[in-house]
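Blinded run. Sample ID left blank on purpose so nobody reads anything into the name before looking at the predicted structure. Input follows.
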Amino acid sequence: MSESPLVYLLALNDSGAPDVAGHYINLPAPSTPYNLRFAIEGASPICREGSLWINIPKDDEEFERESFREFKLNPTFGRTLHIDIPIVRPGTYCYYITYTPLPPFSATTDVEVPKPTRTEAYYVTVSPALAINGEKLPLDSLSVHSILSKFLGPVDKWAPYMKYIAAKGYNMVHFTPLMERGASNSPFSLFNQHNFDPIAFPNGEKDIVEIVNRMEKEYGLLSLTDVVWNHTSDNSEWLQHHPEAGYNRVTAPWLEPAYQFDTALLNFSGKLGELGYPTELKNKEDLLKIMEGIKIHVIAQVKLWEFYIVDVEAALEAVMEKYLAREGQDLAEELKSEGFNTDATLYDISQQLIKRGLKGADRMGERFRRTFDPLVGSAYLHLKCGQPPAGNDPGSVLGPRKEMKSLLDELNLPFYKEYDADISEALEQMYNRIDYTRIADHGPKQGPITIEHPLVETYFTRLPLNDITKKHDPKSLALANNGWLWDNTSDFASSKHKSYLRREVISWGDCVKLRYGDKPEDSPFLWDFMKKYTRLMAKHFHGFRIDNCHSTPLHVGEYMLDVARRERKDLYTVAELFTGDENKDVIFLERLGLSSLVREALVAWGPGELSRLVHRHGGKPIGSFEQSLVKQSYETGEVVKPVGASPIHALFMDCTHDNETPTQKRTPQDTLPNGALSAMCDCAVGSVMGYDEIYPHLIDLVHETRNYEVPKDMIDDNTAGIAKVKRELNKIHVQMGKDGYTEMHVHHEGEYVTMHRVHPKSHHGYFLVAHTAFGPGEHRGDFNPVSIPKTKVKSMGTWRLEVDGSQETIKNVRADPTTLRGLPAKVVDLEPPKIEENYDGTVITIPDFFPPGSIALFETWVEGFQGTELDAFLTDGVHEAFSTPNLAELNILLYRCDAEEKDTSGGNDGVYDIPGHGRLVYSGLQGWWSVLKHIIRNNDLAHPLCQHLRSGQWALDFTAGRLERLAQRHKGLEGPAKWLRERFERIKEIPSFLLPRYFALTIQTAYFGAVERAVSLFGDNIKQGTVFLRELALVSIQMTGYTASGSLWPSKEVPSMAAGLPHFAVDWARCWGRDVFISLRGLYLVTGRYADAKEHILAFASVLKHGMIPNLLGSGKNPRYNARDSVWFFIQAIQDYTTMVPNGIEILKETVKRRFLPYDDTWFPVEDERAYSQESTVEEVIQEALQKHCEGFKFKEANAGPGLDMQMKDEGFWVEVQPDWETGFVKGGNQWNCGTWMDKMGESEQAGSKGHPGTPRDGAAIEITGLLYSTLKWVSALGKQGKYKCKSAKKSDGQEITFEAWADLIKSNFERCYYIPKDPSEDSKHVVNPGVVNRRGIYKDLFGAGKEYEDYQLRPNYAIAMTVAPDLFTTENALSAIDIADKVLRGPLGIATLDPADLNYRPDYINSLDNDDYATSKGRNYHQGPEWLWPLGYFLRAMLTFDLKRRTTREGRLEMLQHLAIRMEKCRKEIESTPWAGLTELTNRNGALCNDSSPTQAWSSSCLVDLFYDAQKVEV
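Blinded prediction complete.
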């Protein structure tokens, strides 16, 4: 049976960057090819004329780093673009995106079109697939053994070493360079990179082939070699032919001063005696004398300052020549026109003229390279001193001459300061270096100073003058040596640096630094020579260690590794970087595609630091979460794994070949615990020849001549050093890597470090106790018994390392004349620790004798625990189990806030309260998932929920028990309840420390199973939409459910829509007529929830009264009629229903029983026999609403008074609506009530605002006018089609007016009455009072308000009218108004409710604040500036509607859709991040959190779903 196709899904954000928490991405080896799938939101701005470019080649093509394939980004709206690219080979791959940025939205067409651009480059690396004799070897199973190859002798003597290394359990040998060495005999100073060492390999390449093959076939060893690209031996013969391959005074003329300085230092070294200075330094006094001599005989003699400054005399003469020739007058005028001030200070003048006249300051170079343009100097003198006198008498120009000299001296001041700083640094560097090399106790104490052994290492290799070199420019024969620099990732020999002049480089005198330039054409021989060398290495070796990688130019490393991977695609690459910055490390990892970075245990300065390093490279913590949710498609069968950020893979060495041994840094006894801890890590590990054998010192690569001691045939109890134990540790390490033991726990206690590494599924593991020996001693130390919960333990061995580490022994070992060998040492068995089992697990007690340098190793397992089977069980069957809940049951399964839960349980149940964290926002799965998703993403095992789960199983019983109780009534929940109970009962049996992981896995599986079921019940437009659209659509389930107190009917319990959670969840506060019908289109019709839409329409139709529907439904028992706009949103929703639902027109014939009598304003309680005694069709209900508004009405709310509304004044309870037959508009309200959605009533007695509406909006609100017009047009059209009986309504005077005529009347007056023209000259054509106008080019919010200025306020409500009645608006005016609102009102998440330029603008809503501020106390400014989210949907729909009118091309329409997408981006992030999984009601200014906002509101999400629906119909 073939494997399911595997896909790694990489989501990109709107900048084109990987949408992951981190930026280093490393994919696994493609042993079986898989697809990398890029996912981009279809309307992302980067899709505009966009293409994704990637240099992953087609299967049959070679990789070329600069060859990019193009994948067009075809924009869509509401869909995610997928680009699948097969991954078949390892390496590092780069991608970027080209696109044309969106031009700003504008009502005009004269917008500058942005130029095409591209994103930065991003990288994806793919690991190599290693194998030994055909058996796969994961990188985490690597156990690398470094060896200094020059100490092995001829290759025919190597077999015992290879056999020994293999016997110790290593599987890869790292060889230092095997090529012919230079004069210094250092393996890293190569004489000829193309020739193997003739002493070790007399048959050359043939010997290499044989040994490498034999190593793998006979000993199971892979081979890795150093490659050296950055430098070559100072006596490499090919340098004499090609000095251009180095940095010399021809290829790098900026090194001239450094060369002269260096030469003078050499000469001074040879003349110390004759100059009276000590030639052998005994103390600091001698050194100080030498330093004074350097100042006198080197620096002063070389005159280094001349390389920094302008030659004043030469410059002065040149300027005066121009001045006297009257040149520069035009330039003087130009300077004058630019405001040049000759009266400024000399310093300011010099700085201005430096910008104009300084030349040669781009780099160092020849003496007096810095010059001053004499024409600029002449221009300055013309301005300062005027014209030179006639006859050019020298005496008459003394003044200008003096002026110019002063200026040039001033100009030189910063250059002298630069010189002083550089020389000061050079002197300090030399002082420290000489002190270390000749005086310091820890230094080499070099002998007498001569020209052959100078004061400081020379920075230049001076090639011999011979028949080869004499044909070259003599300046090319001194080549800069390579070396070490702390700022080591840059090219310190380049013109940007003065490191050689400042003597900052710690020089390697046997190596010449190679100069590649920017490209092969810059140094053809060198690139070709090194290319052949690289190919030769890749041909024979399985891996490269890149020597001096941090100083090797990145582009060179890229080129050479590309060459190498063409030769061997699965090349393992590793480097030791010294950047000191992990972000810089990532640059090397990405650009070079490095497999691992070398890290070292011996850098730790104490047990605590060692434990940190082990923890860093040891794996993930035990019980870690599955951080990437793997999904399998039921349609395609493909397995999809999200791509996340990758940790840096380490090659963790207990000791490297170029660092001191434990004997030197700690104690020889520490060899065993340090090596054991390293070997336990979940990464590649390694050691160096001599570590296991207890070599007492770091081997001198250059001067050492002895060979390694030949090992014995086999490892046994008599084998010196720790080889016997290392064999077991390496064996365990390799197996753990192969089997995936990825979890660990590290503990530090005093001198002890423990490590427990386990398999995440089986939980089988190995436990190590290591008593470190950073200092000497035989003490046991303080170490408490170790308790391992619910775990069985078996001892595998307890050992200590006995070493004779006396100074005399060390001296004798080091003095061996022929052989490199270790200290006398052996591993001794100790009494095993005491192992005691109890109910809670196992306790391990270390024996009394367990001195530093001891370790104990154990095997661990959890009896009866089968993690792989458990994982499969926990994730199996969810699709079937969750296939039964209906939409209302999914509300229970996923959501229900505390108030809803209590309401339906009689107060018995609520949301879960996590100690130390707080209450969940929902009782259902979303409540858990909102917390768990962050815990999982961050692997936050310390979270209070994790601790709570480890402490008990209450959360499991709560979750399953809740569903079991609810399933008794809601049968669709039986499947999920049973599934969860079975999983929870199973995981109750596992150790408590694993409970967080498996609880999370269960909840995660259940949550996505429920979401998948929910989405399957939506329409195809949602199923196929983006994640964002699906999240918005899920709010329909979040908001719609059963409550005991909030049904739509007084005697029938049905699911009802909450306005928002948790503020509007139950009882009278749940169902708001306005909110329901603003939300109905998006949450019900677009999602395909037609039955729920119909139920809500019928329920509110049943309670029509006064021609209005209630704002507060109260289940029909006590409806409140105080909203003038609700009925129009209601009828608009019915209109939408008839056009969007199949056969939706039939709803007009549906009958409903009426809560109140038709056309009768009498109020009576629900128990009255008249309640629900008569019925009407929906069509008749609509007609009644139109008729009542046609004739007008005025009434006082039933039950008016404090019992109904304790804040309102008596005048506010009067509700009045009257038509204006001059315009056709319907006006209403008064200054004491607030009958539209901006309905905040003042509440503060302290501020005197109680009973004073914040926004009365009396008159004709623009959105009501638009909704009315939409209704009239609709019923008029239906009447013509014979689908609506009435064609007119009666006015209060008895005259009839047809709906068509009424609509025409509105249309003919709309622009005239509402539009405020941009041009005041147009005011006469409109109803405008210029004295009240605050902003032009907009539409009034009201017409005929009680306070005239309120008409003219800029608010977002005209977008509603634009959306439902676009033909009321002139396109040009509408676009202008939209443009203004976009710039002035639109915030990050919502739309400001008032113009920031308005004097009443108060954008921060704090409902709880009661003070004496009339405008804001008790939140009276609810709609006076805070940014509401639901109008954003209408605003963007209006933008879409009118912008499309001018978009005649596909490209133009796509541009519009992308404008919409970027304006929703913050909302997308908000719904993903909020625990409520919805969009908030409002924010304060600029999207700031409003603590009094309802955190998820029905209409906030629904109106964006509306937008998606409209936008998806645009043809692109």
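Unblinding after everyone has recorded impressions. The first helix runs from residue 159 to 167.
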